[in-house]
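A reminder from the course coordinator: this example appears on the midterm review sheet, so study it carefully.

Given structure:
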């Protein structure tokens, strides 16, 4: 019998959330058959079986967060020439060596992968002192021990769900949730959001500038949506490219992009996604609209690919579609700017000596003042407002 651990998915992320199991205990699987779908903070990934065999045990339920190197399955291998020889057989003293996976090598530097080792005397001391766990020695990942200490959980009372009863982070969280009802564990996407927002707040010299676009020329049935705003963000990026850029604080270098890749924040029942409209300059209104529709369908089905979430050069958040007038959107490095579009309102204004009503689109732009000057940001928002107030009628692709 062999153990199959969560492989390194090649994204530099240490954890994933189980979205769906495609097999049950007792099922027979073949090599490369998809056994589980997991979601990282960046994408949804189907994980295949490394070899053929019968599923003896699976670890983790749908919705659980698991770490790279954590055991996913125990498989009774069918002895064939196609069996993968790099998967280690389950042995209590060799768990830390089971690093070869179907996707890549798991870094032995990852603190979630290493397992505490105990001498013979230490194991028997734990046996003697434990009042609830008397059938097997207590072994836990270092991160689980630290987490238990922080949350005030008695690790000796926990029966681990990992291979050979290894106690992992998720076991500690489950024990804490039982101890403190109503406590919610932040899963992969929300946990990554929390880390990124804290990092941005710590690193970015954020400044927000606001303005209003008076939509005099818009008619009742005009499509004032993300597609239109995306087109005008693209126009503003070509007029003032300083905000369509990446900044590297370590090397103090700035890269101004000729290509405009707009990350568009999309709220969903699962999480906040930011798919990227690559080469926005190549799209007209109807093309952007079709791209948004296709992408939204992928998000609803949780089939968004990694490529669709990468290489944004500037971000657009259309929070006004739900509620909100002005905001202070958060810049995500290495980008240097994010555009926020508020709720369109009717506003009474003076035009010479005449009072009139006009639809107004509130705009908020946060920029990293390390990489952009106030003048550059002001010229960008001026160009964006001008493009919105003087729309061109695009020809359909």
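Designed residues:
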């Amino acid at each position: 019998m062999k153990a199959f651990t969560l492989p390194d998915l090649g994204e530099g992320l240490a954890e994933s959330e189980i979205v769906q199991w495609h097999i049950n205990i007792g099922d027979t699987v073949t090599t490369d058959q998809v056994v589980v779908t997991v979601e990282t903070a960046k994408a949804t990934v189907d994980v295949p079986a490394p070899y053929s065999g019968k599923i003896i045990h699976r670890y983790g339920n749908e919705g659980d967060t698991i770490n790279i190197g954590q055991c996913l399955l125990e498989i009774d291998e069918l002895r064939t020439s196609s069996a993968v020889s790099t998967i280690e057989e389950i042995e209590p003293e060799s768990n830390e060596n089971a690093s070869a996976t179907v996707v890549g090598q798991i870094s032995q530097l990852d603190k979630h992968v290493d397992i505490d080792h105990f001498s013979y005397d230490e194991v028997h001391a734990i046996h003697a002192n434990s009042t609830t766990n008397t059938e097997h020695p207590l072994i836990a990942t270092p991160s689980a021990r630290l987490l238990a200490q922080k949350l005030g959980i008695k690790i000796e009372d926990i029966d681990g769900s990992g291979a050979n009863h290894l106690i992992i982070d998720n076991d500690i969280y489950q024990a804490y949730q039982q101890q403190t009802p109503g406590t919610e564990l932040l899963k992969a996407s929300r946990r990554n959001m929390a880390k990124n927002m804290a990092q941005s707040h710590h690193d970015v010299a954020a400044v927000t500038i606001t303005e209003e676009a008076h939509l005099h020329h818009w008619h009742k049935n005009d499509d004032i949506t993300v597609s239109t705003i995306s087109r005008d963000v693209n126009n503003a990026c070509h007029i003032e490219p300083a905000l369509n850029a990446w900044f590297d604080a370590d090397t103090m270098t700035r890269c101004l992009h000729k290509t405009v890749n707009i990350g568009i924040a999309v709220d969903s029942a699962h999480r906040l996604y930011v798919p990227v409209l690559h080469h926005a300059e190549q799209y007209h209104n109807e093309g952007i609209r079709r791209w948004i529709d296709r992408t939204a369908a992928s998000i609803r089905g949780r089939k968004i690919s990694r490529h669709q979430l990468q290489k944004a050069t500037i971000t657009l958040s259309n929070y006004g579609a739900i509620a909100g007038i002005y905001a202070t959107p958060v810049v995500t490095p290495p980008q240097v700017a994010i555009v926020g579009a508020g709720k369109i309102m009717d506003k009474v204004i003076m035009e010479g000596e005449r009072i009139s009503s006009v639809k107004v689109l509130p705009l908020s732009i946060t920029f990293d003042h390390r990489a952009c000057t106030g003048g550059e940001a002001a010229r960008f928002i001026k160009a964006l407002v001008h493009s919105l107030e003087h729309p061109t009628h695009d020809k359909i692709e």
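The longest helix spans residues 188-203. Residues 5 and 71 are 4 Å apart (CA to CA).
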